[in-house]
Structures are given as C-alpha cells and as structure tokens.
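Input record (Table S2, row 487):
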Amino acid sequence: MPRVTALMGQRSCCSDRLMTPRPWLRTFALVGALHAALTPLHAARALAASPLIERLDEGRQQTIVVYGTSLTAGGAWVSQVASVLDGQYPGQITWINSGQSGKASNTGVALLQSAVLAHSPDAVLIEFAMNDAFTAYATTDLDYGISPEQSQANLNSMIDSLQAARPETQIVLQTMNPAWDAPNGRGSATKRPQLAAYYQGYRDVAAQRDLTLVDNNLVWRQIQDNTPSVFETYVADGTHPNAAGYSAVTTPAVLWQLGADTGLTLAVDLKTGRAVLQNRSNAAVDLISYSIRSPSGALQTSWRSLADRGNAQWAEANATPFALSELNATGATTLAPGVAANLDVAWDASRALDLELVYQAADGVARAGAVVYTQLADDQNLTGDFNGDGVVSGADFLQWQRSVGAAATPFVGADDNGDGVVDERDLAAWFAGYGTPLAVPGAALATVRVVPEPAAARIAVVLAVTHFFARGIAGRVCDVTAGILAR
Ligand SMILES: [Ca+2]
Ligand SMILES: [Ca+2]
Ligand SMILES: [Ca+2]
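Output record (calcium ion complex):
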C-alpha cells in the first residue's frame, strides 16, 4: 500500500491543525465540505477485456498468430487456449502457430513478414527469450550470440514493424519457464546462464510500450522454489513444460491477461497469498457456496470470509488447511459481471500452488472454477477502499456515508460484505482497511452496533467516526482536505 504509507508520512505535518478546541465541530465541517466537494464515485472493480476479446464479443473474425520458440511451436498452451476461446467464439478465430523450434529472435525479426505479418494478425503473442538466452548456437547460426540488449532490440523491432503495419493488432509478450539441468536435458540451464535477464527485458519492454504481459516466469519460478519436484515433473526435459504444466500455469495466465471469460475465478497473489473471487464472465453468478481446496494443505484458515465480515446469510464450514468453505444458508449472493470479493490472505505463498475452486450457483450444481496465480496490484481490491481508487482514506468513509442504509449491488461501492445493503458492518471494513487505529474506535463501533434503527445508526456512526478523527487520527485525510480547510 505505497500510497497509504505516503499519506501516513504526512501525518505529523497536519495533525496539529486538528488539535484545536472543539475538534468535533471542526471535523463535522470538514466532512460536510468534503461531501459537497467530491463528485459521486463508483467502484472500478470490473476488469476491462482486451481489444481482442472486445472484437470477438462484437462477433468479428480474428486471426491470432503465436510466435516464438519451441515453447510456442510445441507448447500445449496454444491448443488449450484455443480450445477455450474457440468454444466461446465458434468459427470466429483463425489460429496461426508460427513458433520456430530451435530459433531465437534474430530469426524472429527475419521471418516476421512471412510468418506473422503475411497473416494479417489481429493479435500476436511473442516469446523468444528462452532461446535468445541460449549460449550454445554454432557461430555460423543466425541466432548466435544474442545479448540481453540485442534481445530487447529485436523485440522492439518486431513490435515497431507490427505497429507500423497494423496499428490495431494487439501485441502480447510472454515470459516463459526457467530451464533446469534435467538428467537427460543436455544442460539446458547451464547453456542459458542469463535467462532471467532476458525475461526481464520482456517485462521492461512491455512496461515501456504499455503492452499486455503474461509473466508466466513468476509463476514457474515460485513452483520451482516452493515445490521443486512438481516443477521437475512439469518440465521433465529441463526446457519444455508438459501439458499439465501449461494447463496449471500458462493457459490460465494467458486467458486472465486477455480478459477472457473464465467464469468464477480465484485470483491468488503470488507474493502475499491474498485471494480475490471474481466473476470473469458476462453473466451474473448467483453464488450459494464456494470451496477453495488444496490437496497439500497450503490454505490459511484465517482467510476473511463473508461470514467473518458480518454477512448473516453466510456460514463457514470448519476451515482446514485443505479446504476453506462457505455456504449461503438462506439464498444466493449475486456477483455481477466483473465484480470481485476480496477474501484476503487465503494461501501460504511458500507452499504448493495447488489450489482448486469449486462453487455452486443457484441451481446447486457443483462447478469447477478457474484459479490463476498472478500479481494483484497492491492497491487493488483493498479492504475498505469503497471508491476503488486504490487508497483507503476518508473519501471511502464519505462514500459509505452517502450510501448507508441503501440497497447496493453486492461487493460494489461501500457494500464490503456483499449482503446488498450498506450498513455498519461495511464500515467495519473501512476501519480494518484504514489500518492501525482499530483499538481507538473499538468502543465507538460497539456503540454503533447496538443502535437498531437505521437513521439513528447513521447519526451514531457519524458521531463515532467524527470522534475517531478528532482523536488525532485524521492526519491521513489531511491531504484530501488541505485544499478545502481554511486556516
Ligand atoms: Ca473465519
Ligand atoms: Ca479509496
Ligand atoms: Ca453490506
């Protein structure tokens, strides 16, 4: 939460200004001024589809060229991704596999016209880093001696040519798996001593040119670190993942980054183990249960369930490291398209990447959901970030205040717990997300919870929060208010 940290750093500069007589009144005025100054905000939680998916949704024909090494030419991820997208858009996609086994990006540049541009692609997926890093080409080979710098230059050259010829083409860059010296792998890792640097080049180019990046390498490396035997089974020859490996890593990652329909999807952060349950389809999901499973027992039973946050319809089953389950006992909770429920830390990021998602929609049929390991942005789906701007601040309290007592789309705006109404239970999420001062307003929250009537509750909460601000914690909203406050 870098931005929150930055705001905390400013706390001492302006908290003095709030330590004036009658801080309640002053804070009331402050809240009112903010209320008037802010335009209505909406949670920006739905992820946009990529241009490719948008065009497919419009019913247009699309040609997809996959370009790279043997990891593309013989990679099962290509047929796996094609199977999903062809199922959703039958007859709309022409697939061209222009993978070049044993070749690197000098060849990629040389063959770009015939292997890629000649097909008039609408989307191109590129990976050459694995062989750019290969140091054992014959000196006479076109691909001999490609440095990390040359690898980036070649990648940029291919992108330049693609963008010049077809500005609408979506370009997707991929990092792939690490190599290792498998028993019969002919020293794949030893012959690629700088492979990580070549993958970093792909990340850098994607960032510089604002291109979609599928960073498979992060996932592969974590599998290699956490469960070496699993990695070595997936990549048995030291270089080429098998179909099971691609199914676990690359296929979900490509679909996720494209913004394809993967139905109800559990996105898990590789670093923190935070999990987000998101409806990645174009239809609402009426959820009546979900179960996250880990055959190896890598789950965190302290995950933040819907029941934990005061959604009275939901009840946890007995949580274990092997299964986290919840059931809506009295109805369904609707997840609109794109809407996500933040489950906080549900997985031990040092353990196996073996999570499975099973859920029931309103028809009661158990379905498998998708699981993707990724880097969730630190500011994405934060607890208490009701307006979706990536910071938990006083503005979120105001968002809550504006909508308290009102019906809400579950998990959108200030409805943290997805029960379809904004009330004091959701405010608790704001306090939780706001950080350290939970001990201070504890009594205030308790006061709020015993007030049954909505209007009274609203007033009591405002008073409680105002008091909370006045205790000197309001420093973190000072930057918001600085332009409004008269001295
Ligand atoms: Ca719990
Ligand atoms: Ca916010
Ligand atoms: Ca709620």
